[in-house]
Every structure is written in C-alpha cells, then in structure tokens.
Write a structure and sequence with these properties.
about 375 residues, alpha+beta, HSP40/DNAj peptide-binding domain, four-stranded mixed β-sheet, 11 helices, 15 strands, about 25% helix, elongated
Length: about 375
C-alpha cells in the first residue's frame, strides 16, 4: 500500500486546528481543485479525492481523535499491512481490551468478537453544479447517485434463497484469523479478516446469483436535494441516511453533496452581499436620474443625485443573499460608471465646447484642487 499523506498537510493546516479552520481550509481546497473547474485535469481530480478523504476524517470528532492519536492506523486497521493486534506481551494483557478502553469501551471488542454485529453504512459523495440564482434563492434538485444496498434477493446473507448457511470452519465464526510471527521483541500476532468467509464468520453452500454471494448490490437512485437559500460555492450539503446502506441492520451512511455555483453575468457575490455595476450616461450623472436596478429577487427604483461621479457606489440594504438558516439578508452594492459617448458629429462637438466654455471652475472643484496641489511641479 502506498504511503498516505498526512491529512492536516492535505488541507494545509496545523494539527490542532479548530472546526472552523478545518471547514475554511476544505472550502479553499474545493475551490482550487474541484473537477468542475478543471474538467480535463486528472491531477486535480485525484487531489480532490484526497481532500475529501482528509475532510471526512478531520470533520468527524471521533475519527479525528483516533487519527490524532494513532495516525492512519487509528482509522483504518488494514493500513500498513493489516497489523492490528499483539500477543505474548506479558503485562500488556489483551490488546483488544486496551483498544476498547481507548476507543470507547466494549463497542470495539464487540465489533471484533461479532462479525455480524450491526454496522453503519459508509458515507458517499457527489458533485452538483447549480445556477447562481438557485444558490441565492434555494431550490429542490434531483440528483442521480450510485450506492451500495442490501441485496433484495438474499437480504444480505449472500446465500441463494433456500440454501444452507454454515459457520466458517476456518475462523470458527469469528470472522478473523490470527497469524503468529517471531520478532526481536518476541512472538507477535496479527489478525486479519478471514479470506474464506470474507470476515462474515459464515459460509454459504450456494451463493446468491444476484449479488454473487457478497450480500450487497450497487443501485442507481434518484435523491431529491433541498438546496437552502444562501448556499455558496464550495460548500457541502449533508443528506443524512442517503449513503450506503448499513450491514446487519446498521444505519445507512450519509450523502455529501459538494456544491459548485455557476457565475452570473450581472451579479457578483461577496459573502452574503451582492455587487452590481450599472453604466449611466453623462447627462444622468450631471442631472441625476431614477435608475431601474436589477436585484436577485426582482428590481427596485433608485434615484441617483445630481453630480454623481463615475465609480460612485450606492447601498441597497437587505437586497443581498439570505443568510443560511437565518431570516437576515446581506446588502446589494450598486456601482455606477459614466459611459463617455463616442462618434460625435461636428454639431454635437460644437455644442459640447460651448457648454464647456459656459462652466466655471466652481463646477470642477476636484479638478481645481488637484491642479492647485501640483502647480509648483508644473512650473519646472
């Protein structure tokens, strides 16, 4: 097995990072490596898988605690060649008891002792790209996923209906087999899933034809995702119970939906605020005017004052994006840019020159102040 990178290194954070720091680092990585942003880049696709695996562990308090203490071996007993147990260590006694105390009491031991105990299904992930307006206002979307479920023919037993199920003679029903090896520290034993029964502790005489004895089948499902108003690019939705089904009556895992938001030609989002740029004419800027301003939920009328300068920004309170799980909204900022006319004819140019001549310095206070400041420079 190839050596896995440290999960903290994958997300670019230090060990001991807070929950918010982990989430922030994950979102940054999603924006950097998301496959929808790099459709032909296989390297980004692999890095995104690595990022998702790291976040899955570090965002779960229990998994994170085990990883912090034991590294990859704490979350994957098969990591590094399947070494998972000791024997003949005298005072250490039963290593299963030691791990049981570390990982929360009898749950660890019972899982080892009973291969047919209920087990929660694995979480699965999918990517979803949505329109800008759907992210702002929310929407229900159907997502097609593939997930592992209990075989409907054998109900997870792996045996053809009516056939016999027997205790595995190789592991005597434990699902695990022990191997001993002499080392410089003495005899050491390791345990691994029984290859004959696949860790189930039972064998079947006639395997189920539908699942080929695995007890599991991959099924395509359509899941309705309720996208909340205010979700942002790079965030992940967790849909509980829509992951792989559990085994032996265990609960199903969750579905994690990684959200990508398409850019909009008119609006630009900054957190929960919306930025918009509107071109205005020279006369509108000079005389003032009523503008029709587009918003994410319609339009509003806004009066700009006389003498509005190009680049001026006006604030529309409460016209931004709804904040997640709150009734508050951000604001919309409208930037007006004066568009200078081109292609004037002679008559139009003459009229503008006469108009310019009729103006005094008091009409151009900023221009006058600027040249007063640099008059000494202009003398040289």
């Amino acid at each position: 097995m190839s050596e896995k990178r440290d999960f903290y290194e994958v997300l670019g954070i230090q060990k001991g990072a807070s929950e918010d720091e982990i989430k922030k680092a994950y979102r940054a990585c999603v924006k950097k490596y998301h496959p929808d942003l790099h459709p032909d880049d296989k390297e980004c696709e692999e890095k995104m898988k690595e990022v998702n695996e790291a976040y899955e562990i570090l965002s779960d308090p229990d998994k994170k605690a085990k990883y912090d203490q034991f590294g990859h071996a704490g979350i994957d007993p098969s990591y590094g060649g399947g070494y998972s147990g000791f024997s003949d260590f005298g005072d250490f006694g039963d290593i299963g008891n030691i791990f049981g105390d570390l990982f929360g009491g009898s749950s660890f031991r019972s899982a080892r002792a009973n291969p047919n105990a209920p087990r929660r299904g694995q979480d699965i992930q999918t990517n979803l790209t949505i329109d800008f307006m759907d992210a702002c206002n929310g929407k229900s979307v159907d997502v097609r996923i593939n997930r592992s479920e209990e075989c409907p023919d054998c109900h997870g037993s792996g045996a053809k209906p009516g056939s016999r199920i027997s205790t595995c003679p190789e592991c005597n029903g434990s699902g695990m087999v022990q191997t001993a090896q002499r080392t410089i520290l003495g005899m050491m034993s390791s345990s691994r899933p029984c290859t004959r029964c696949g860790g189930k502790g039972k064998t079947v005489d006639d395997p189920c034809g539908k699942c080929r004895g695995s007890g599991r089948v991959t099924v395509a499902r359509t899941v309705t995702i309720n996208i909340p108003a205010g979700i942002d690019n790079g965030q992940t939705l967790q849909v509980r119970g829509q992951g792989n089904s559990g085994m032996n009556g265990g609960n199903a895992g969750d579905l994690h939906v990684n959200i990508s938001v398409r850019p909009d030609p008119v609006f630009e989002r900054d957190g929960y605020d919306i930025n918009t740029e509107i071109p205005i004419t020279y006369m509108q800027a000079v005389l003032g005017d009523e503008l029709t301003v587009p918003c994410i939920d319609g339009k509003v009328q806004y009066n700009i004052p006389e003498g509005t300068q190009s680049g001026a920004i006006f604030r529309l309170r409460g016209k931004g994006v709804k904040k997640l799980n709150r009734n508050e909204r951000g604001d919309q900022y409208v930037k007006v840019v004066v568009e200078v006319p081109k292609g004037l004819n002679k008559n139009q140019k003459d009229l503008l020159r006469k108009f310019e001549e009729s103006l005094g310095e008091s009409n151009y206070r900023n221009r006058k102040n600027f040249f007063d400041k640099i008059k000494d420079i202009l003398k040289n």
